[in-house]
Amino acid sequence: MFSRDTWREIFTTIRKNKLRTFLSGFTVALGILIFIALSGMANGLINTFNEFFGDDATNVLYVFPGRTSLPYKGYKANRTIEFDNSDLADIRENFPMFVQYISPRINRTATVAYKQESNDYTTIGVDWGQQFAEKTIIMRGRYINQRDVAERTRNAVIGRLVERDLFGSENAIGKFIDVGGSVFKVIGVFQDDGGDNEERQIYIPYTTRQLIEKNTDKIQQIVVQFKPELGYTGAMALERNMSRLLKDKKFINPEDQNGFFIRNVAEQLKQNQDFAGVLQLIATLVAIGTIIAGIIGISNIMVYVVKERTKEIGIRKAIGATPANVTSTILLESIFITTLSGFTGMLLGIGLLAWIGDRLKDDYFITSPYIGTGVALFATLLLIVFGGIAGYVPARRAARIKPILAL
Asked: How far apart are CA 26 and CA 22, in angstroms?
């Protein structure tokens, strides 16, 4: 196998048949390149889904009020549903073993001013548990706590970009801002991976917002964060039971789907993961098909090579070459070309994924496509093994050629 003469003969054959060698190698390299590219892009699609849902906690239910579409128990259709503080208490009381945090949300737009600077921002009245549902990252200071909610303090947590807009290079912690005519003290500055819009928001205690609005108890939205160990099945059961509770309390027809809406992040995540998994499976099957096509291509080319070299093989056997010599020479040529082309295709595929990076993120939702080193090596080695098998079959046939028939 390691005979210098054998390898000299292999390289001589390759130099004399450059086109044939190139086509053989191109088939192998293209198969590996397509496999790595498709697998990497499927992983990039999954990265996009994970990034989209990674900004907020996935064990969360968002409950939005709506308008009824069916009459029920003497109540007419087209009735506007409102949530209030008692709904928070009822959810806590009925699902104490499942609910981890619960927070209302009251969104308002207000002009916020500090000294000579002012701008319009979204202010959100929340409870202290909202920090965990939104995965809010506190850069300086602190988030709203239970005392702020209980005592209706006028404390505010502002986004990073709010601080930059209003305070410039000045530290906002401890300063006072005018929020729609009410003075609030800045107790914290946060950042959020959700983007600029998230970081141009201001959080205040929801009880303070209700106090400002003539001491109302109305809330705009309910955010329920359930315990992660419930999983997908538990999340769906909690959604159904909570929906039943709210429909009974608000006198909404059980068949009415418009009285309020529940956005179950766990359900959305699973649906998108299933979709991404199907796409990944399709990409993998196409990639495997490409590799198989490459193997068939190698086999066909090696059959042609043996047929083309029939007279040469006959001469070699006539002057004393054994069947093992003939088989090993052709087999080594096949393995050498396959190995060199396979690793070339692998490196080109990995390089292509690195070059793509986030270029396809906006148009095709593919973020940082990648393929595991182990998977890439396994696919390449698998192709090399089958390339060897593809070369062995015609090589064995060549070894059986009788010199007199070949000549």
From this structure: 6
Rounded Cα gap, residues 118 and 406, in angstroms: 93
- Spatial contact of 185 and 205, defined as CB atoms under 8 Å apart: no
* Average pLDDT rounded to a whole number, residues 207-223: 95
Distance CA 344, CA 347 (A): 5
Q: C-alpha distances in angstroms, 23 versus 50, 139, 149, 268?
A: 40, 58, 73, 47
176 CB neighbour count, 10 Å cutoff: 13
Place of tokens 């083309």: 308
Q: What are phi and psi of 62, to 5 degrees?
A: -105, 125
* Torsion-angle region of 179 (φ positive above 0: left; ψ -120 to 50: alpha; else: beta): beta
Contact assessment for residue 256 and residue 69, using Cβ atoms and an 8 Å cutoff: yes
**Average pLDDT, stretch 229-233?**
87
Rounded Cα distance, 28 and 32, in Å: 6
- Strand, helix or coil for residue 156: strand
The reported pTM is 0.69
